[in-house]
Amino acid sequence: MTFRKLLSKMGFALLSLVALSASAQDTLKLKSGSLKRVQILNINDESVHFKPTPESPNAFYFAKSDIEEIWFGNGKKEKILHPELTEEELKLKATTLLQTNAHLKKSKNPIQVLFDSNLLVLSEINPNDNKTIGTSKTYDLSKVFAFQPVSYRTGDFAFLNIVIMVRENDSANWEQQKLVLAIDHQEKAVLLLDVLKQLNEMLNQKNDPKK
Question: Tens digits of per-residue pLDDT, 43-58?
């Protein structure tokens, strides 16, 4: 065999290996209808942890409620079930995520969470005496202008940015502001964003007289 033929066969084998590796990637079929080629790292009850490609240094999350099906690289498929949560169940889930994982902006203090119909009241709490720090703010979850994508940071840390109607609790005036939440765990940031989106959609449907 000539050296040129040997190189040709080696090149063909390499290309075949690359193609096989690409075809073995997993695929997420989202509820929106779009397909995401990924390398799945882990699946639990609420989320899928993945890399965009096997070589990517960064990993991300999808909430399972955003996924219709998972197509694995080995040919298997998994249909994702989506249990319908009530408004109260969604509020309880949001409260738990906010109280256990979220902080206002760059603060490290815990958050006190109260729901009143479509209004979300957040207060920063001093962990030493459980007293409110500063002024509480009320956010109207039926009036959200933008849910920005999760901002992943180094380590297992993320920010949520939500453009929403806000008023300070010592004022009667509402204005459009950005709610910035620092989240201790990236998976929890994705799950919190998802549950707040679901609440926003549910509240808008409930408040729309045409529906």
Answer: 999 999 999 999 999 9
